[in-house]
Each structure stands twice: as structure tokens, then as C-alpha cells.
Amino acid sequence: MLDVLRQPENTHLLEYVTRDPFGAHVFPGDTPDYSPEAFLADLDEQLRDTAPIHLWSYIPTCAYRCRFCQYPVVLVKGDPGKLTQWVDWNIREALLWLETVPSLSSAPIGEFNVFGGTPSLLPPEDIARLLDFYRSHFNFGPETTVRFEGDPSTFTTEKLELLAAKGCTKLSCGVQSFDDPVLKLSGREHTSEMCVDFIREAQRVGFERISIDLMYGLLDQTVDSVRRDLDVVLETGVNSVVCTKLHLKSYAETRTGVAGEKPAAWQVDSYRARLEKDGHFWPTLDEQYEMRAVLTEGLRAAGYVEHPTMYFAAGGIGPEKWKSIMVDQDRQDAEVAIGLGGSSSCRRSEAITDVNWQTYAAAVEAGRVPLGSATAFSPEGQETRAIKMALTTLQPLRDSLHRNRFGRSLFDEPWAGRFRSLEERGLAVLTQDTVTLTPAGETLVEAIINTEF
Ligand code: SF4
């Protein structure tokens, strides 16, 4: 991959990946300082007649803080009262959204996810209360799928069985690595054995989709360690894997959903210097691409499909539904995030919920939807966003779909020159109706959409 990046015509891509920003999930508007009230009005209008949307609840509680974590986390070790409080605030915030965006209550929910933080830390009665609330107040139908996120140390058998009984068919679990020293240095308070036990128990209970997060580029991680991660994935047969590169560029700068205020420990220069002085090391860019290749090629050879970028699913179970709702070229529907730092969007604008827990709580207590900021998309910005999102799916972009929605062709300017340039550099293949990324284009999709569109 570095050969491609070192071509003079790809200097901007090399600079982008070297600067280490995180952008594949981020599609901020091109018109800043939009009012949150205007965003809520745009959303309400879009939801009056909509295909199924993505609804999610963010529970920010964690028992410890990982060294790479930039999320707005609230530590609650040994304080169950705080957990219950966050469920109370989440439910109150959801009621405020329903009041302020009247069409939200009837909008069909394609997928409802409880993300975190570590929602699996919640006591069983709060898990049940949260899921029952959303099911009874939003438009869940037979097609609505429900997922719950957590970590391997807190997904107990009792909680897994409760989740299954409440109609939850999907789980997401932060594993990050199956290498114990790498986990320890990352600040994770679980072992690789606990991760495998979680997968086996979730399979026994019968969840349809069990998704684990793996990271590459971690402190002291080697290509061999990632090879062993792949072996464990294949041995356990876990059917969904999200592979993320460690990103230490500030999420707040890129408007990444759920960006917190506090830097991750690994973003602090003096701490990084101390780690390096103690003999620890970061994988080089070359090694990071090798790690990515190990995972991508190994998973593909075993029949997993990558759709969208970084999300791998075993053959037959299909792409992640919530990602498809957001980014597939024929969908790109709304997303509503309820909870500290969540990102919500519709076709005209997007907004991020307050990331400071005190001002968040004060807004909810005062009866106001606690949005922190919003941006809008100009007509050209909406078209650009649609192309960028569709490219991240790694599926062919269809000119016919684009023309139906925007009235002009992908092969007219201003797009034609950009796609031709990708083709000349071996990053895409064009046919009469489609643009398809090549394997090199797929690997670099995040850099391409953030520097060329
Ligand atoms: S990475 Fe996840 S588990 Fe770790 S502190 Fe952040 S939110 Fe909590």
C-alpha cells in the first residue's frame, strides 16, 4: 500500500493517513453555525414520510477508561445509582425529542441500538426499563432489529438471557485484541479468555449477530499478534467483526459522532514519551497496512464480506443494518441519537448532542433537547455527502440512482474529473453506469473521500 501512497500524484493521500485523522463515519455539513432548532425542524419534515431510520441510545457509563478512548465517558465503578441516573436522563431526553419532533413517534425504526460507553454495566432492571421504554414509545415493527453493546466482563449470562427475552438479536462487544499484554497496555480490564467465553456464551444463547470490535495499530501490537487475532475470530466463528485502526487525532475536530471533551491518555505527549522511554513502541504505517491486509484478506478468504468499509460480516448475514440505513446509496436515511455526544442527521443538516455531562444534564432537567451544535448541507454539499457515503460502502456507485436523486450524472462535472483521476491512479474502475473502487481504492477510501470530495 505504501507504494501506491508514495506515487507523487497521491501525496495528499499519504499526508492524510500520516496525520491520522478519523473520517470514514463522519459526514459533517458544509454550512457551520446552523441552529439546533433548524436541524430539529428539518428532521421533523423528513420524518413525515420516511423509510425506516436508525435510532440509537448512548449510555456513557464505563467501569474504567481505556487509554485510546476519546468518548464522553462517565466512570461509575461501584456506584449503581449513577447507572440508574443515566437511564433516567436518557429516557427523559427521548421524551423531549418526541415532544419537539412530532413525526419521530411514527417514523418506522429500522434498527435500534444501545451503544456506549458500556451499557452492559447497567443492572438488569435498568436494561429492561430502557428497552421497554423505547419499544413502547417509538414505532418498532416486525422488521425492527435491536442491538445492545458492552464489554466481555459485564455481559453476564443473566444479562444475555434477559436481552434475548427482550427481543434483542444483535450484540456488539469491544474486544480490541486477543493478546493479553496488548489489552493490558490499552487499559482494558478483561482478558482474551473472557472475550472467547463471551462469544461462546452469546452463541449458546442464540443471538443472530454477534459483532466484535478489533483494533490495529495499538501499543506493542505486532503483525503476528494481529494474525493470532484473526485465528481466534475464525476458530470461534463469530459472525461479525469491525476492524478499526487506532486514531489519535482529535475526534472533536472532525465532528466524529460521540466525541468527548477529554483527550485520551495516548493523546497526551508526555505520557507517550514515557511509554516510548520505557521501551514500548507504536506500529509503523507500513505495519499498520500489513495488519489491515492480514485482517481483510483473512476474513475475505473465510467468506466474510466488507460492507461498509471496516465492517465484516460472515457470508449470508448481510451488511450491518444501521450502517446501510445511513450510507447505502439507495437509502441514506435519517439517524437519531439520544444521549451524551451522539450525532444525529437528516438529508439537510446534522447535529451533535452536548458532550459535557453537566450542561447535558442541566438541559434535560430544564426540558430542552440537549443539542450542542449543528451544521447544514448546501445543495452541492448534500450531493457530495451522498457520494462520499456511497463510496464508503465499497459497493459500486450507480449513476442511475444518482441521477434520479440529484438530476445530474456522476459522469458530468464536477464529478467526472475526480472519478477519471481515481481511475488513472488505479483506485477506481468506471463503466457506463458505475464507479467501483479497486482493492487499493477500498483500502484508501477514508483518505479519498476526505481529500478529493
Ligand atoms: S473505549 Fe469504550 S469501554 Fe473503553 S472507556 Fe471508552 S467507551 Fe468505555
Mean pLDDT: 94
Question: Main β-sheet: number of strands, strand sense, barrel status?
Answer: 9 strands, mixed
Strand content: 15-25%
Report the bound ligands by name, code or SMILES: iron/sulfur cluster
How far apart the termini lie comes to 21 Å
Total count of strands? 18
Helix amount:
40-55%
Number of domains: 2
Q: In what order do the strands lie side by side in the largest sheet? A: 10-11-9-8-7-6-5-2-12
- The CATH topology of the largest domain corresponds to Transcription Regulator spoIIAA
Any idea of the CATH class of the largest domain? Answer: Alpha Beta
Instruction: Determine Rg (CA atoms, Å).
Output: 21 Å
Low-confidence stretches: none
Name the CATH architecture of the largest domain. Answer: 2-Layer Sandwich
> Total number of helical segments?
18
What shape does the CA trace take?
A: globular
Structural class assignment: alpha/beta
Domain Radical SAM core: 48-292
GO molecular function, one term: 4 iron, 4 sulfur cluster binding
Pfam family, one: Radical_SAM
Keywords: Oxidoreductase
Write up what this structure looks like.
With 453 residues, this protein is an alpha/beta fold. It has 2 domains: 31-302 and 334-376, 2-Layer Sandwich (Transcription Regulator spoIIAA); 379-452, Orthogonal Bundle (Arc Repressor Mutant, subunit A). Helices cover 42% and strands 18% of the residues. It has 18 helices and 18 strands. It has helices spanning 2-5, 11-19, 36-47, 80-100, 124-137, 157-165, 180-185, 192-205, 223-236, 269-277, 285-301, 321-327, 357-365, 379-392, 399-406, 415-424, 439-443, 445-452; strands at residues 31-34, 53-59, 61-62, 74-75, 109-116, 145-150, 170-176, 209-216, 240-245, 305-306, 311-313, 335-338, 343-345, 349-353, 371-376, 397-398, 428-430, 434-437. It has a 9-stranded mixed β-sheet with strand order 10-11-9-8-7-6-5-2-12, sandwiched between helices. A 4-stranded antiparallel β-sheet has the order 1-15-14-13, with helices on one face. Strand 10 and strand 11 (311-313) form a beta hairpin. Helix 2 crosses helix 18 and helix 14 packs antiparallel against helix 18. It is globular. Iron/sulfur cluster (SF4) is lined by residues 62, 65-66, 69, 71, 73, 116-118, 151, 174. One of its GO terms (cellular component) is cytoplasm. Residues 48-292 form the Radical SAM core domain. Keywords: Oxidoreductase. This is Heme chaperone HemW. GO terms for molecular function: 4 iron, 4 sulfur cluster binding; oxidoreductase activity.
